[in-house]
Amino acid sequence: MLLYAYPFMSIMWTMFVFFAWVIWIWLLITVFMDLFRRHDVSGWGKAGWVALLLVLPFVGVMIYLIAQSKGMAERREAEAQAAQKSFDSYVRSVSPNGHNAASEIGQAKDLLDAGSITQDEYDKLKAKALAS
Q1: How far apart are CA 126 and CA 111, in angstroms?
Q2: What is the mean pLDDT of the chain?
Q3: Cα dist. 64→29, 43, 97, 118 in Å?
Q4: 8 A C-beta contact, residue 34 and residue 72
Q5: For residue range 85-96, what is the model confidence (pLDDT) as tens digits?
Q6: Are 70 and 36 in contact (CB under 8 A)?
């Protein structure tokens, strides 16, 4: 009755229900993603979890989160470490020995400022660094 007497409360309740539904859908997708990425559960085990999640969705999600929370965190951490390791190896592969054009031009500029090389030599070093 209070919801219909005050339209603002009705809007707030609708927003609350909508966001709760969105959060539950997000949790369900997270559980399915974790379940299907697992290598330690057989196909029958996955089918059992899916059946539970489809028959009793709210209870099934809560049971999975309670029973598998530590494993979910460990698997997520392992995935993040693997992604970081892959990114680090990619960066090392495209930047051999940590040299890049900017550092080479900076070193050449330092030599020019110190008077060790001429402007012409600096231009050649700069062009060489930009070409590689």
Answers
A1: 12
A2: 87
A3: 12, 16, 47, 70
A4: yes
A5: 999 888 777 765
A6: no
